[in-house]
Design goal:
By secondary structure, the protein is α+β, with helices and mostly antiparallel strands. The protein contains four helices and six strands. The protein has two domains: 4-85; 131-171, no CATH class. 38% of the residues lie in helices and 16% in strands. It has a six-stranded antiparallel β-barrel with strand order 1-2-3-4-5-6. The two termini are 106 Å apart. The model has no long low-confidence stretch (mean pLDDT 74).
Length: 173
């Protein structure tokens, strides 16, 4: 129903310039009768209850379209009937589509093989300071790192094996 009302308003707006602002002559009687019957049908359609079935509503819409066509022909002439049947124009300006060239695919390059990051190398063992014999007795010696070295004959034996002694310095495994 709402589509019919704007078309009726457009039809009336189209008729006003045709009659002219300074022309006192009214519209032809056939035009007035067609517009009057169209207005009555629109009023009846607007007064119809909202819960009405879809079939009478579709018939009402077709009936209103026929009345609009009849009013257009009576008021504007036979050429206006084709304009009434034409679909509504879009308010947006349409432009011709722009032809763009197809995108050129880029050449595929071989993927670089990236090795996983290697585990960091263990830090080099810091050299131990040289051991020296701090205090010795008949059974062995105390080393400068606090370990007890047992005397076995002329040699000193540490926790990891036999130590060699050169003066006060000890070399233990």
């Amino acid at each position: 129903m709402r589509r019919c009302l704007p078309s009726f308003v457009l039809l009336n707006c189209a008729l006003l310039p045709a009659w002219g602002a300074d022309a006192p002559s009214p519209a032809p009687p056939a035009c007035q009768a067609a517009l009057h019957s169209l207005q009555q049908a629109q009023d009846q359609a607007a007064a119809a209850p909202q819960g009405a079935s879809a079939v009478p509503r579709a018939v009402t819409v077709e009936h209103l379209k026929a009345l609009q066509r009849r009013a257009a022909v009576a008021c504007l002439g036979p050429a206006a009937a084709h304009a009434a049947d034409a679909p509504p124009r879009s308010p947006h300006v349409s432009a011709a589509p722009i032809a763009l060239p197809r995108p050129v695919p880029l050449p595929t390059l071989p993927r670089a093989v990236v090795a996983p990051p290697a585990a960091p190398a263990p830090a080099p063992a810091s050299p131990r300071p040289p051991l020296s014999a701090a205090a010795c007795d008949a059974a062995g010696c105390w080393a400068s790192d606090g370990t007890r070295l047992q005397r076995v004959g002329p040699n000193l034996v540490g926790p990891h094996g036999i130590c060699t002694q050169q003066g006060a310095l000890l070399s233990c495994p």
